[in-house]
Specification:
The complex is a heterodimer.
Chain A lengths: L18 H5 L15 E7 L5 E7 L1 H5 L3 E5 L9 E2 L6 E2 L5 E2 L5 E7 L2 H10 L1 E6 L6 H5 L15 E9 L11 E9 L11 E7 L2 E6 L4 H12 L6 E4 L16 H9 L6 E4 L2 H7 L5 E10 L5 E13 L5 H11 L8 E10 L13 H19 L3 H8 L19 H10 L1 H11 L5 E13 L9 E8 L5 E4 L9 H13 L6 E4 L17 H27 L8 E4 L2 E4 L4 E4 H7 L6 E7 L11 H5 L7 E13 L5 E11 L6 H20 L5 E2 L2 E2 L17 E6 L22 H13 L5 E2 L3 H17 L1
Parallel strand pairs in A: 1-14, 10-31, 12-13, 16-17, 20-21, 27-30
Antiparallel strand pairs in A: 1-7, 2-6, 2-8, 3-7, 4-5, 9-17, 10-15, 11-12, 11-14, 15-16, 18-26, 19-20, 19-25, 22-23, 23-24, 26-27, 28-29
Helix pairs in contact in A: 5-6, 8-9, 9-10, 9-18, 13-14, 17-18
Chain B lengths: L1 E6 L2 E6 L6 H8 L18 E4 L2 E4 L12 E3 L12 H8 L9 H14 L5 H7 L11 H18 L1
Helix pairs in contact in B: 2-5
The chains are: A alpha+beta, B alpha+beta.
Chain lengths: ~775, ~160
């Protein structure tokens, strides 16, 4: 039974604070906001990939009874631009259409049926421009520029990092493995599509949105729409999933514009699933070329990486995705000579943006397969070659950056080595039934935490003692489903000795909580948790000091907090917190504390763009995954039968939440490995529903055993480090390596669909016959 | 048209256009926003409700089809502040992350256990295979359903 009268200490699986409301259907998501006289807002999309907008015909839509407003860029009072690093995306198109999802006009209507009708009545004329649907086309000489004002043409951001003798050292290597890889776009497919609810009244714009970034949204909305920041309020309820897809503006500015033009009326915008598929951000399609050189004994010597990310028409967070991809391109290994270069390239395809993993799943997919190929060539086992080259604390990573913090890779590898599942899997392999091929594979990954050296990774925790004697935790960072709000409650409960009944969560709201950055970058619990620890200490001292005054006791440390009360230990006298709260003024009952995450002082690059986008990180989590797969020879279908993940995640605050992050990340990773492929033709998404874009169902996933190394990261709250993303980095190469172990075939394009694998098996068979 | 049906144990009468989707009637008219909409096309299962003992997708049902039916939404499971064993198991077992699939998942499991009190893991996975979840990888959901089934079976014995 769930208990609110229990103090959940650090390390215990406290039930989620939000679980009861979610399991009874009473939790109010952004999608659940309605008002009696509310309006609906919707977007007229371009539907074409590249064109110059000439004229929009709005008259027929405006004449329709029940249509409240039909708006274009001319109605936008501010910059009409949005974006995180580079503000290159118009709220409403004012010049060029750059992808099929670009917003041409915004309609506000009394109901959804009218909205749909009005959107259909809007027409526009435009002059077609040459379209760019491949990265090669974007880079070709004379290619049309997506953004004429961008100094690097169609390259949003590029970077090159070199250590030792760089790629030249490949010549000195006894063995060089070379391969190219291509990875598909992945859809976030959160169940709650992009949505929000807004109202403009008394000169204030209030928006409740499904977002990971309420404070950054507020600034973007204000700038784009020409408002003062203090006149904008963004409320962020629990998200119905986000995974990076709500890291940045989705509905917010358009919804704000709608509200400004229908003052006093509540307005709802909720994208349909097809709209979400067609126009939301995606995991970048990537093309990678790798060369890995090593000695005959398997010692890594040199690495050359070229990686290109199709970032679509707008920055979104494409620069950060590139930077993280470059930083992690060489994996968790010692490689003295490296040359790692990459580009995020503008095209007229759907927007490539933030998605759990941020570029790391793509490079890990390539690197970890390279490592297995090197193992084959050197006669080492996949485990042995990783143990031989894997980083330990004090080593330099492939960027030449010294690893100064907890580095548990080798322990993860050893734990995999000793795990009974590995031994069983080897036996299981030998028992493959007729028509099936079985294989076992592993992959090792690392994942940087936080914003890197240039952008301050800061959180402000606000904590209050309510008049009723309960502690209110003002969460500055969104809980998009990962359970960080519960972790904050657990941290405060442990430090203040309070059960959940005496702890209250105030979810992110720019008018109530304090700026604490985005819910992203595996930094959410680390940064805000550290800020909250400080806030708890300040408020605890203040409360105990006031209690000491009330009893004329010298030393406040003679008091201990207990659920709802304080006890003076020497005398046993107790004071209810409610009574104590009455002695404090409202201002005294509130404290705040700022925490800024430490940064890495190492300087692997002088490129300010790469530094701004996160290179280098200071703290990394590490993980090693193992998969046992079975291939059906007739269909080429791959079934993942067993899965094990060992993660260096620092100490655990809540083991259940850790397992949830791992299992969820692995599940998304299995989908990414085997079938998730957002198909795009001429800039238009061809797989815009769950019938054509397949995500794993309960029948598609194996049991996932997730073990924590649980070695403390000394700077983390109670020794924790972030693990929100690392689980998705490893499944693809783990499964690809297992498939290769099973059948000797290695595909270079992913996902590893049955069709693709069958073709590869057939080719292999034909080649064998030729010989 | 005026439609009458039993909603979570109470008889209700609502005036609504007959072609209105049941999910809209529940969410917008009756304020039962626990019934979620994830796709509007019968592919994700988030809008699952129980109609006369069988799970149905409220995005594919018209309001008029509820006429005379016994309808259970997620809000109808809790009685006098008491959760069902299944709801308790979802909480204790960590089956909930973002929670957007949870109402549909719980109702699907509820209907399963009504017909098959002690389902195997394969039966559980098959039963919930029409309810998509993007957060959990389903493992804790499956474990929680099994836990609830065993607890209930224990109580019955």
């Amino acid at each position: 039974m769930t208990s609110t009268s229990e103090i959940f200490p650090i390390g215990k699986a406290a039930p989620r604070a939000d679980a009861r409301a979610k399991v009874t259907g009473t939790e109010k998501y952004a999608a659940d906001y309605y008002a009696a006289d509310q309006l609906w807002a919707g977007i007229k999309r371009a539907g074409m990939a590249h064109a110059r907008l000439l004229e929009i015909n709005l008259d027929k839509a405006r004449e329709l009874a029940g249509v409240v407003a039909v708006l274009t860029h001319k109605d936008v009072q501010g910059s009409n631009r949005q974006g995180v690093a580079r503000k290159d995306q118009p709220v409403l198109v004012d010049d060029k259409i750059r992808h099929a999802g670009d917003a041409i006009a915004l309609v506000v209507a009394e109901n959804r049926a009218l909205l749909k009708k009005a959107l259909e009545l809007i027409t526009f004329t435009c002059e077609p421009l040459p379209e760019i649907f491949t990265m090669a086309a974007a880079l070709a000489e004379g290619a049309p520029l997506l953004h004429a004002d961008h100094p690097d043409g169609n390259i949003l951001l590029q970077g090159r990092l070199e250590t030792g003798q760089g790629a030249a050292a490949l010549k000195e290597c006894a063995i060089v493995i070379e391969s190219s890889f291509a990875l598909a776009r992945q859809e976030h497919a959160y169940l709650e599509t992009e949505c929000g609810f807004a109202i403009y009244q008394d000169h204030k714009l209030e928006i409740a949105a499904s977002t990971q970034t309420p404070f950054r949204d507020r600034a973007e909305i204000a700038e784009a729409l020409g408002l003062e920041v203090e006149n904008v309020r963004v409320i962020a309820p629990y998200c119905g999933g986000a995974f990076g897809g709500k890291d940045g503006i989705t509905v917010q500015t358009l919804l704000g514009l709608a509200a400004l033009n229908a003052p006093g009326r509540a307005i709802k915008m909720w994208w349909e699933r097809e709209e979400s598929f067609n126009f939301g951000a995606k995991r970048h399609r990537a093309e990678l070329h790798y060369q890995l050189g090593c000695d005959r004994d398997g010692t890594f010597k040199a690495l050359s990486v070229e990686v290109d990310f199709d970032t679509g028409p707008y920055d979104h967070l494409g620069g950060v995705v590139l930077a993280l991809g470059l930083e992690h391109a060489g994996g968790p290994y010692r490689i003295p000579h490296t040359q790692i270069q990459g580009r995020a390239i503008y095209t007229n395809n759907p927007i490539g943006g933030a998605f759990r993993g941020f570029g790391v799943p793509q490079v890990a997919a390539a690197m970890e397969q390279m490592v297995d190929m090197a193992a084959v060539r050197t006669g080492l086992s996949p485990l042995a070659i990783r143990l031989k080259n894997g980083v330990k604390r004090g080593d330099r990573n492939p960027l030449g950056v010294t690893l100064q913090t907890s580095t548990g890779l080798l322990d993860c590898l050893r734990q995999i080595e000793q795990d009974p599942l590995r031994h069983e899997a080897e036996k299981w392999k030998a028992q493959a039934p007729p028509g099936k091929l079985r294989g076992v594979g592993i992959a090792a990954v690392m994942h940087g935490m936080g914003y890197g050296p240039t952008v301050p990774d800061t959180a402000h925790a606000k904590l209050a003692l309510s008049r009723e004697g309960r502690f209110k935790i003002y969460c500055g960072v969104v809980d998009m489903g990962q359970g960080n709000a519960t972790t904050y409650q657990q941290i405060a409960g442990d430090l203040l000795n309070q059960d959940f009944a005496h702890l209250e969560l105030i979810l992110p709201d720019t008018d109530q909580t304090l700026p604490s950055g985005s819910s992203s970058a595996s930094r959410t619990t680390y940064t805000f948790g550290n800020a909250l620890i400080g806030a708890c200490e300040i408020l605890k001292k203040r409360v105990c000091e006031r209690a000491a005054d009330s009893l004329m006791v010298e030393d406040w440390q003679e008091f201990t907090l207990l659920p709802g009360r304080l006890r003076h230990l020497p005398t046993g006298r107790e004071i209810p917190l409610q009574r104590l709260a009455a002695l404090l003024s409202p201002d005294e009952r509130v404290v705040s504390n700022r925490y800024r995450a430490p940064v890495n002082r190492d300087q692997p690059t002088a490129n300010p763009g790469l530094k701004l986008h996160g290179i280098p990180h200071l703290i990394f989590s590490y993980g090693v995954h193992l998969a046992a797969v079975e291939i059906d020879k007739l269909s080429g279908n791959v079934a993942v039968k067993k899965y094990l993940a060992v993660t260096d995640c620092g100490n655990l605050i809540n083991p259940q939440l850790f397992e949830q992050q791992m299992q969820g990340g692995i599940a998304q990773g299995i989908g990414y490995s085997l079938y998730e492929d957002l198909k795009v033709t001429k800039g238009v998404v061809q797989t815009s529903n769950f019938a054509t874009y397949i995500i794993p169902s309960a029948l598609d996933l194996p049991e996932m055993i997730c073990k924590a190394l649980a070695q403390p990261e000394s700077s983390g709250p109670f020794g924790l480090k972030g693990v929100g993303e690392i689980a998705i980095d490893a499944p693809l190469p783990t499964i690809a390596n297992a498939v290769s172990d099973a059948c000797g075939v290695r595909c270079r394009e992913f996902p590893l669909t049955a069709e693709r694998l069958l073709r590869a098996l057939k080719k292999e068979e034909d080649n064998a016959h030729k010989i | 048209m005026l439609i009458k049906f039993n909603l979570n144990g109470q008889d209700v009468e609502v005036e609504t256009p007959p072609a209105r989707r049941a999910v809209d009637l529940l969410r917008e008219e009756l304020n039962l926003t626990g019934t979620k909409e994830g796709c509007g096309a019968g592919e994700c299962g988030a809008c699952t409700i129980i109609v006369d003992g069988t799970t149905k997708l409220a995005c594919l049902l018209l309001a008029a089809q509820l006429e005379g039916c016994r309808v259970t939404t997620i809000e109808g499971l809790e009685h006098e502040n008491e959760l069902t064993p299944l709801q308790e198991a979802f909480i204790a077992g960590g089956a909930i992350q973002c929670g957007f699939c949870t109402p549909g998942m719980v109702l699907t499991a509820q209907a399963l256990l009504a017909k098959t009190p002690l389902p195997t893991e394969a039966e559980i996975r098959s039963a919930i295979s029409g309810n998509l979840c993007r957060c959990t990888g389903y493992q804790k959901i499956v474990e929680s359903i099994r836990l609830a089934a065993h607890r209930r079976a224990g109580e019955l014995q």
